[in-house]
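Table S2 (text version). Query chain:
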Amino acid sequence: MNRLLLTLYRFLLMPAVVIALPFVALFNRKLRLGLSLRRKRLVVEPLVDRPIWIHAASGEFEYAKAVIRELKILYPRLPVIVTYFSPTYKRAVETFPGVHQSFPLPLDLPGPCRSFLRQVRPRVLLLARTDLWPELLEQCRQENVKVILFSFTQKTFHSRFKKLYTRWIMHWIEQIYCVSPADQANVTSLTGSTPVAVTGDTRFDQVQYRLTHPRPLPEIMRPSLSVPVLIAGSTWPQDEAVILPALRELLISGRLKLILVPHEPDPEYIARLQLKLTQLDLATALYSAERAWNEQSVLLVDRVGVLADLYAWAQYALIGGSFRGSVHSVMEALGAGCMAFVGPHHHNNREASEFNQLELLDVVHGGEELCTKVTAMLSTPEHLVRRRTLLQQEFKRRLGASQKLVVDLAPYLT
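Corresponding structure-token output:
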């Protein structure tokens, strides 16, 4: 059965995809850029030893960062090569300390995959969480490159097709490292003989590293401790339509200050937000101005890359996307000890669900509920202190997955 499925994939599905890609790329800039990167000739820099190969599709690179740090501590002489799927993560990968060289993942065809493996000659492939490609995995098997899957999560499937596909794709995996015992049980029921262990979620280690190694922020803008701060992180128009009216009275009365961080802070979007805030009688300060915002109730962040560090300035957080369709990461806010809120669309995020069950994160379904909960919390500051302590304890309990993983990988790296 495995051979039949590979044959269908190799000679029917992928050729059709390859034929269609140039036409689809005409209407998709990211896809055009991805194809352009993959057309370039592969040039592998000289290596002192066979490298460790890590693949992270895009945002999955956040799960790989702490692993790379641990690898460079225990195996400083081994080069680390990283591949990515999405071109939007190209710069983040190629500039990360410890990455010897990076490439876009080759198209999932026999020729490109075989050529890549024979030029790079990796000793092992570490897959961050997801993005398993059948041809690539088959070529790894033929070249005797063991494939390790880490920070893996597995839902319970009710679809026979999904179960069949998972069983098929997992037969190429040498070892699976899961986030939790529940993931281990779910994937073991589908994989059979593939070894499965629980090491935890490596992204917690990355968030902790970022919190303890913050980027410098303009101190003149740091809010005073006299007024509590709520940060709305990575927001979309649907989030802002709920947040701003709900918190308006608290902001105008001076009981609360707001740091508003849009997901896509281009100049046009920032201008529209400024107009909306003015219409609500909310005074604003722009982050790029780097001036104190003592007299304004809203700090509007018009730069990217600072959100994770800004959580340290707040006591409360609302995570964007949760009134739009899928919430963004809650880890940074929780790691900073913020009392966090998410809207109704949070089930895509594992940590949001888990911390809500632990009563360390609150779900709100609309502006009125958000206003009521924030007002109640402002009236009971002692509750914030207790919850921050519990958050820190729970977050600390989840650290160390990267070190456990790298120690366990010794048979593949020595």
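Notes on Table S2: The chain has a mean pLDDT of 93. The first strand starts at residue 52 and ends at 56.
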